[in-house]
Design brief:
This protein folds into 5 domains: 201 residues, Jelly Rolls; 94 residues, Immunoglobulin-like; 147 residues, Glycosidases (TIM Barrel, Alpha-Beta Barrel), CATH 3.20.20.80; 100 residues, Sandwich (Immunoglobulin-like), CATH 2.60.40; 242 residues, Beta-galactosidase, Chain A, domain 5, CATH 2.70.98.10. Helices cover 10% and strands 37% of the residues. The chain has 11 helices and 59 strands. Strands 42-43-44-45-46-51-58-57-54 form a 9-stranded antiparallel β-sheet, with no helix packed on it. It has a 9-stranded antiparallel β-sheet with strand order 47-48-49-50-59-56-55-52-53, with no helix packed on it. The protein has an 8-stranded parallel β-sheet with strand order 29-28-27-26-25-32-31-30, with helices on one face. Helix 2 runs parallel beside helix 3 and helix 5 packs parallel to helix 6. The relative contact order is 0.08.
């Protein structure tokens, strides 16, 4: 006898989150971003608090499950935990943040997603305002990662995916009139959409943007498009309107207000009518990043009022170039991810605005919204403050590169797969239909690092048909087949030259360059010079604005975490720390450097040095909005300072000459003419007096302290007239030299030198030859020098004494070491003579080093060539004349001006989120470092040439080992490096190494440093 059986399956259906046929269900089509108001006055406030708007942000009940199939029933919700919306659940104690650059952190089987799919269930109660009775009620989620179902009073309303795009649902039929209602959302960490959301950022989940209710009457405006049209002479224009209504055409009114609020034109009639509004004469103003002039439109239908800021711009291709308002602009941009160190992609408005004001103050004129549509407030701010925006679709599938290492192979998974065409087009539609009324957007981008396939062709065609007024970008389309420009990431200067030589039909931008990881990038000035001298290259956008560290506490210590710090695996470690600002958005030295290099005014000396050549790099503005001032900086003399207006008009793109305002023949020492340009009046992004641009012009003169490099001349800085007897004694392998209050010790075996004065230690090690520095993140990058230096064991180099002799020359005692400074393991090294000279003058020491590198494994480039000294830790007061006040390196120094500066040792240190080499100050004429407790100050200079220094209380080896700033151990000494040469920074994490002129080549060296107590 046999029992009957049946076959069962689980779950018995294709889940929405793994179904390419279901991207949205019962969702309102994508529309322009707007809020409804009950009056024109309320609409003109542009305030959500005045809108017909009910925020559902705040505390929600929350349950976290490992799978959608483990999620609990809604009737248990009131007993759940509480979570804050908007926010990510990983930042509120559920799951953990996970960082990857490329890898998918889940099994790859598109479009399928594992049933082990962490799920967050959200629930809250809400009430519909009585004044909304009789209207359609919608709930709008501005951003949910990655996909979700929506329920009202336990009934399913709909479904949506597309993590960084909004979703809106009409929930009217699900409401219980006159009662409290409940809203719930089942949010899935992964969906088939996750395969298209593999951006270089943290994987974070949940309802991370605003949630709110809006009412729509039966007869209402549902959507609108306002398109600017500019006449060929750029002196007039008109706005055309395309308005979509529900409940019949009704009577629509439209009102156009000037920037000052004056009424310019009105319309009243059918929404389907031909609505245009003309502006000309003195009322007509173009919008640009330099002149962000906005008009206001108020739309009205019945009791519904909508306000929209609009502007006139014209974006077009003329020949190969992109023109904005008739001019071939240069993009001085930055890539911006949405990130906050506390809340991830939930970015508070105040923080967003502060960032954008900082960008504007840093002369940045363009932002790529990488790599997904940003919060709606971002685009309002870009319109208001003045930024050219590249708005990018929420589309990246870089992780397929792990499976197919060819571009073609990787493209077949989704980009060249017709099963995914609908998903690709959906992301284009969500981007354009939502944001097309924003005047700041000049370029649509099809996404990032999704390879290239037919689905991009479909996106390109749809966008151009829908919005022919803007250009389209997509970097992986290297032949610019379905894009209006050529675009590259991280090219070398040679790559750029090759590009514009071979491809001249379209302009060229760098959508990512100058990878701003840690201490760097170097070489920015060379890139910007390319932008300004090659018409086909219309600029670039630095990667990126800020580090993505998340504040984290471990064992009572707070720090900014990166990949792996949460136990996330696989991960890409610190690769997420690659911004111009720290994780807390404090500017790093690189931001000041970038701001200087892209400044809109440049001043150079004429060939005969009698004229200042003032170049205006603005595309539209003259310099009448700026005040100019100048002052003289020189070493050892009185400084002149005055302010003078610019008595000439400098039109956009023009250069004028102005006489140098000082007689150079009166200068008896090196001098620099510093010229500054500051805002005359307050702006929305900076107060009057904010310095927009500055330059420093070198006026020739003898360098203070300059002398021949021969040992006999020692130094031209003043020695005391007080001669003293120099006595020498030898005890075993050590020589002791007594000169007045100073005692010097020379170790004949190890080469170590000590110096005490009146019993106070100045240094107990050095000065000795030193060629190493801690690695920067760029050194450790894909093409960085760290690999070569590690292979050459540069970090292990030690001094070996080969011979020592000494003599009294009559006016000084000389101790001459013949040394070999070499690494472990290998046979290369530096062979050198080091001559220490103690003059018959109290409290002075000169160090002359002359040598060369020998051996088969000698690296071509070294981190530095100079001297290392361990000073007493009480030497803390630092002063110098050279570039400052901030750190600077050979290829990153334009922002740091010549002058006299002072600092403590601690203040010289730059605390990068990831510890690394930092704190160098270059092109010094002199350095003084004082011990206030002992009343001692040590003066250091180098013969004939400027030098650089670092002073810190952390060793290079500790910097290399540390993973976070709190790992650093402060030493009870001041480590002083005096360098004749330092290697540049480059941007080799994903870009070029330092350019040739900034490399510290291993070769013959010959330099002399002079140390003296003053």
């Amino acid at each position: 006898m046999s029992a009957m059986s049946s076959v069962s399956t689980f779950p018995g259906f294709v889940p929405d989150w793994s179904n390419l046929d279901v991207l949205h269900r019962n969702e309102v089509p994508a529309r322009a971003i707007f809020y409804n108001y009950a009056s024109e006055a309320a609409a003109l406030s542009f305030s959500k608090s005045e809108a017909e708007y009910e925020s559902l942000n705040g505390d929600w009940k929350f349950n976290y499950a490992d799978s959608p199939f483990d999620a609990p029933a809604w009737d248990e919700a009131e007993s759940w935990d509480t979570i804050e919306v908007p926010g990510h659940w990983q930042r509120q104690g559920y799951g953990r943040p996970h960082y990857t650059n490329i890898h998918y952190p889940f099994p790859v089987s598109p479009p399928n997603v594992s049933y082990q799919n962490p799920t967050g269930s959200y629930w809250r109660q809400f009430e519909v305002p009585e004044k909304w009775d009789g209207q359609h009620i919608r709930v709008r989620f501005e951003g949910v990662d990655s996909a979700f179902h929506v329920y009202v009073n336990g009934d399913e309303v709909g479904y949506s995916q597309g993590a960084r795009n909004p979703a809106e649902f009409d929930i009217t039929e699900y409401l219980s009139p006159g009662q409290s209602n409940n809203l719930s959302a089942r949010v899935y960490q992964w969906s088939d959409g996750s395969y298209l959301e593999d951006q270089d950022q943290w994987w974070l989940s949940g309802i991370f943007r605003d949630v709110y209710l809006m009412p729509f009457s039966e007869s209402s405006i549902q959507d609108y498009q306002i398109v600017p049209h500019v006449a060929d002479d750029f002196k007039s224009g008109f706005f055309s309107f395309n308005i979509t209504t529900a409940g019949g055409n009704g009577t629509v009114s439209a009102k156009l207000l000037a920037p000052n609020g004056a009424e310019l034109e009105t319309y009243e009639g059918s929404a389907s009518g031909n609505i245009t509004m003309q502006v000309s004469g003195g009322d007509f103003h173009l919008w640009s990043a330099e002149t962000p002039t906005l008009y206001t439109v108020v739309l009205n239908l019945g009791e519904q009022y909508i306000s929209q800021k609009v502007g006139f711009h014209r974006i077009e291709l003329s020949g190969p170039n992109m023109l904005v308002n008739g001019e071939p602009i240069i993009i001085y941009g930055v890539n911006r991810h949405e990130h906050n160190s506390e809340s991830g992609r939930t970015v508070p408005y105040e923080a967003m605005r502060a960032d954008m004001i900082r960008m504007k103050q840093s002369n940045i004129n363009a932002i790529r919204a990488a790599h997904q549509p940003h919060h709606p407030d971002f685009f309002d701010l870009a319109d208001e403050l003045g930024f050219y925006v590249i708005a990018e679709a929420d589309l990246e599938c870089h992780g397929f590169n792990d499976i197919n290492d060819t571009v073609y192979g990787a493209s077949q998974w989704t980009s060249n797969n017709t099963d995914w065409t609908g998903a690709y087009l959906d992301r284009a539609e969500q981007l354009v239909d939502r944001l097309r009324n924003h005047v700041s957007i000049i370029i649509w981008s099809l996404g990032n690092e999704c390879y290239y396939g037919q689905n991009h062709v479909e996106m390109y065609n749809w966008i151009h048909e829908t919005d022919p007024t803007r250009l389209v970008h997509y970097e992986p389309d290297q032949n610019a087949t379905s894009t209006d420009m050529y675009s590259h990431m991280y090219p070398s200067l040679e790559d750029m030259d090759e590009q514009i030589s071979n491809f001249t039909d379209k302009f060229y931008i760098l959508c990512e360059y100058a990878h701003a990881m840690g201490n760097g990038p170097g070489g920015l000035v060379e890139y910007v010079n390319k932008f300004r001298t090659e018409p086909l290259i219309q600029g670039g956008l630095v990667w990126e604005w800020n580090n993505h560290g998340l504040r984290h506490e471990q064992n009572g210590t707070e720090f900014y975490a990166y990949g792996g710090d949460f136990g996330d695996y696989p991960n890409d470690a610190d690769f997420i720390m690659d911004g111009l600002t720290l994780s807390d958005h404090t500017p790093m030295p690189s931001l000041y450097e970038y701001a200087k290099i892209i400044q809109p005014v440049e001043v150079k000396l004429s060939n005969d040095s009698t004229q200042m050549m003032i170049r205006n790099w603005y595309d539209f503005l003259d310099l009448s909005h700026l005040d100019a001032s100048w002052h003289i900086v020189r070493d050892g003399g009185a400084n002149a300072s005055t302010s003078t207006p610019l008595n000439v008009s400098v039109a956009a793109g023009e250069t004028v000459s102005v006489p140098v305002p000082i007689n150079r023949n009166t200068l008896d020492s090196e001098a620099w003419l510093t010229v500054e340009f500051a805002l005359k009046e307050d702006h929305a992004w900076a107060p009057a007096g904010h310095v927009v641009a500055f330059d420093q012009l070198y006026l020739e003169g003898p360098m203070a302290g300059q002398s021949n490099s021969t040992l006999q001349t020692r130094s031209s800085f003043a020695l005391s007239n007080r001669q003293t007897e120099v006595n020498m004694t030898q005890t075993g392998n050590r020589i002791m030299v007594h000169s007045g209050d100073s005692t010097f010790g020379f170790d004949l075996v190890r080469g170590n030198v000590t110096w005490t004065s009146n019993g106070v230690d100045l240094f107990n090690r050095g000065p000795e030859l030193y060629f190493y520095r801690a690695m920067t993140q760029n050194d450790n990058g894909q093409s960085g020098d760290a690999e070569f230096w590690n292979d050459a064991w540069v970090h292990s180099m030690r001094t070996q004494v080969r011979d020592v002799f000494w003599e009294d020359t009559g006016d000084a005692l000389e101790v001459r070491y013949n040394v070999r400074v070499a690494p472990q393991v290998l046979e290369w090294g530096a062979e050198a003579d080091i001559i220490y000279t103690i003059p018959h003058d109290e409290g002075a020491l000169s160090i002359h080093a002359q040598g060369d590198f020998v051996g088969n494994n000698t690296p071509e480039v070294l981190p530095r060539i100079g001297l290392l000294t361990h000073l007493n830790q009480d030497f803390d007061d630092v002063a110098w004349f050279g570039r400052g006040p901030g750190e600077n390196y050979p290829d990153s120094k334009q922002s740091q001006l010549f002058g006299e500066y002072s600092s403590s040792v601690a203040e010289l240190f730059t605390y990068y989120d990831y510890p690394q080499e930092n704190g160098n100050r270059g092109e010094l004429r002199w350095l003084q470092i004082g011990n206030p407790n002992a009343g001692l100050t040590l003066d250091a200079r180098m013969d004939g040439e400027p030098f650089s220094f670092t002073a810190k209380r952390v060793s290079d080896y500790d910097l290399n080992d540390a993973q976070h700033p709190h790992d650093l151990q402060q030493l009870n000494m001041t480590i002083l490096n005096l360098d004749m040469k330092n290697n540049g920074l480059g941007s080799a994490t994903v870009g070029p190494r330092p350019f040739e002129q900034y490399k510290c080549y291993s070769g013959p060296f010959d330099f002399t440093f002079h140390l003296k107590l003053v």
